[in-house]
Write a structure and sequence with these properties.
Helix content is 36%, strand content 20%. It has 512 residues and is α/β, with parallel strands linked by helices. The chain has three domains: 3-59 and 468-506, Urease, subunit C, domain 1, CATH 2.30.40; 69-169, Diaminopimelate Epimerase, Chain A, domain 1 (Roll), CATH 3.10.310.70; 186-458, Alpha-Beta Barrel (TIM Barrel), CATH 3.20.20.
């Protein structure tokens, strides 16, 4: 039996506002109370941390991550530069010392550049000395590749989304990205998975929802995650697995790899930055309405199949046309199955950036969770940023309707979509509190719940509160009170993360 006691702190436990101590036995919260109660609970076999007033909270849940891509960012060129020329310089500097089979880069965003365009493959060829190179846009739904990488990827001419300039979107991009799975060694992906999990733990995150999909990651990544869990004795953030595919074969794959559902990045459309989100009306800055990858009938059939199989269904949906398609499919599934069956299945939606508010009460009725990323609004909301460029100020003001969904009673769970945005849950809480659209702001307590207990609910599990009987996944922070969430104020640093009572992160010398 493992018994841990954290005491002399400030414990965020709403049922015990006076709590200064929390005890964990065999990975489960067993005690929450004050110092006198801690004296009575402790015995010589208890491991004790004295916190000197520091804040203890439930550990965070990141409800949407891509672990391998997040870890691979550490060995990629950071292309989040102020200009196209600066990004090419950063790429060239990285390529001079990089020894991998493919030069990787990530994070470029041409909407922020004075040039207002992505690189060309000829520019990438010069910067990399003609080597194979794959450079993901910040939204990870398109990439610019070099000529040598096009040779590796095979003939993409004629595939949807192919451009001779090297900027690949839609099917051409998915095909090119899948080639990375074959070119990069499996050990490199395993190292990336471990790096991402350690980075999450250092942010006070004890559970992540991994959004695997055939166009994003090989099924072997789930095998690698199993090996990492064994090698580290469970002392890494818990990984809830999703596989973004549909059909009988996908269901067998999900069961074989213990996935919670055929959900996550099962894409109904793409991303606004890459102009592949499916819109009702054309983009404000291009003559296109984006790309729709699923029909409402396919959505209906998937929801019905998953509900009957006892697994979660879910979809990536960003544009309003994609949202209409997905939600019409859900409505048709409800007609077939009935509300109680659909509600019991606990399905989910990812991103939900352009939902019509009339759907909010229906999502609440159907028990469908919304996995959202508040930092998207912080980065791209407002009257002059990416959203306004892509869809115009009027449509942009309605996006990421967190407040509307929360008020309707929808379970809203927060995540980062790392590596699209950084692992950083306090930043997401702050972004939700200060949403660009005032009516979409929510209170700090509601935002914190969205990044903790709601994440557990979105995965069909119980947790995220410091209550006896719930999982002993918690975090200790370098502050003695809840943080000031005003823009510019420093956010807490994590000193300790426990995952089911196991130490996943400990700042050296901070607590003992």
């Amino acid at each position: 039996m493992t018994r841990l006691l954290l005491r002399a702190g400030r414990v965020l436990a709403p049922h015990r506002p006076d709590a200064t101590a929390v005890g964990v036995v065999d990975g489960v919260v067993a005690f929450v109370g004050d110092e006198a109660e801690a004296d009575a609970w402790a015995d010589p076999g208890v491991t004790v941390w004295r916190l000197e007033g520091r804040l203890v909270t439930p550990a965070f849940v990141d409800s949407h991550v891509h672990l391998a891509q997040t870890g691979l960012a550490d060995v990629s060129a950071d292309l989040a530069a102020p200009t196209l020329v600066a990004a090419l310089d950063a790429l060239a500097a990285h390529a001079r010392t990089d020894t991998h089979a493919v030069v990787l880069g990530h994070g470029w965003d041409e909407s922020l550049w004075p040039e207002q365009r992505p690189f060309t493959r000829e520019e990438v060829d010069r910067a990399t000395g003609g080597r194979p190179a794959y450079l993901a846009r910040v939204d990870a739904h398109s990439a610019v590749v070099s000529s040598a990488y096009l040779d590796l990827a095979g003939d993409l001419t004629g595939r949807p989304g192919y451009a001779a300039s090297g900027w690949l979107r839609q099917d051409a991009h998915d095909t090119a990205r899948r080639r990375l799975f074959e070119v990069l060694p499996g050990s490199m992906r395993a190292d990336a998975l471990l790096a991402a999990l350690r980075a999450a733990a250092a942010q006070g995150i004890a559970q992540v929802h991994e959004m695997g999909a055939p166009h994003l990651s090989p099924l072997d990544d789930f095998v690698r995650l199993d090996a990492l869990d064994v090698a580290h004795g469970g002392a890494l953030p818990e990984v809830v697995r999703y596989w973004g595919a549909h059909g009988p074969d996908a269901l067998a794959e999900a069961r074989a790899h213990r996935c919670a559902g055929l959900a996550g990045d099962l894409c109904a459309d793409g991303a606004l930055g890459s102009r592949t989100s499916a819109l009702r009306e054309p983009y404000a800055d291009a003559e296109t309405t984006g790309a729709l990858y699923l029909s409402s009938d396919e959505v209906r059939d998937h929801v019905v199949a998953c509900t009957r199989a006892g697994v979660q269904a879910g979809f990536h949906m960003i544009g309003d046309r994609a949202a209409d398609t997905v939600l019409e499919g859900f409505a048709a599934a409800v007609e077939i199955l009935g509300v109680p069956a659909v509600r019991a299945a606990g399905h989910r939606l990812e991103h939900v950036e352009m939902i019509d508010p009339v759907w909010a009460p229906r999502l609440a009725e159907w028990g469908v969770a919304a996995s959202m990323q508040p930092v998207f609004d912080a980065l791209w909301g407002g009257e002059s940023s990416l959203y306004a460029q892509r869809v115009g100020i009027e449509r942009a003001a309605t996006m990421n309707a967190i407040g509307t969904l929360v008020r309707a009673g929808v379970t809203v769970a927060f995540g980062s979509d790392a590596p699209v945005t950084d692992l950083g849950p306090w930043a997401a809480v702050r972004a939700a509190v200060h949403h660009h659209t005032p009516e979409q702001r929510i209170a700090a307590a509601a935002a914190f719940t969205a990044h903790t207990a709601a994440g557990w609910r979105a995965a069909g599990r119980q947790g995220g509160r410091l209550v006896p009987g719930e999982p002993g996944s918690l975090a200790v922070w370098d502050v003695t009170a809840l943080p000031d969430l005003e823009w510019g104020s420093p956010l807490p640093a994590c000193l300790l993360t426990l995952v089911h009572g196991r130490i996943a992160h400990e700042h050296p010398g901070a607590l003992r």
